[in-house]
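Service request form, structural biology core

Requester: graduate student, group of Dr. S.
Request type: structure prediction, single chain
Budget code: on file
Notes: please return the result as C-alpha cells.

Sequence provided:
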Amino acid sequence: MKITQTTVSIPLFKFGKFIGASKTPLDWKIECDALGDDDWECLAQMAMKILPAFRTVQGVPRGGWPLAEKLQKFRTSSADLNLVVDDVWTTGHSIRNFVSVNKIENPYFLVVFLRNMDDAPFTDYLISVNPSVLRRA
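Core staff response, request fulfilled:
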C-alpha cells in the first residue's frame, strides 16, 4: 500500500476586502495560518536577537499563541518585563485590549508583522509590511 501526503498551500498574503480585529476595512491581509511549526520556531529565534529579558510571555488569542508557545523556553525569572506577542499589528487594538482586560503590568510588545508604524512607537517587530514606506523610483 502506497501512502501519499497531500499538502494544502495557504497563501501568506491575500488581496481582497477584509475587516480587521479593530473593525477597520483592509484591502489585503496576512494569513498567519500559512505559517508552520518550523516557521514559528525560526521567528522565535529571530525575536531573541532583539528582545530584552522577559519574565512571562503571553500570546494574544489566537494569532499570538504559536509564537508565545515557542518563546516560553526563553523566560527569565529575574526579568521585570511581561512579554505580550501577536502575529499582526494593524491598529494595535487587539494587543492593547488584551493587556487592559488581563491587567498585565509592565508589558513589552512584540509582533511578527507590523502594518502601521505610526501606531506602534513602543513595539518591537520582526517584519515590516507597511506599504506607506514603499516609494516609486
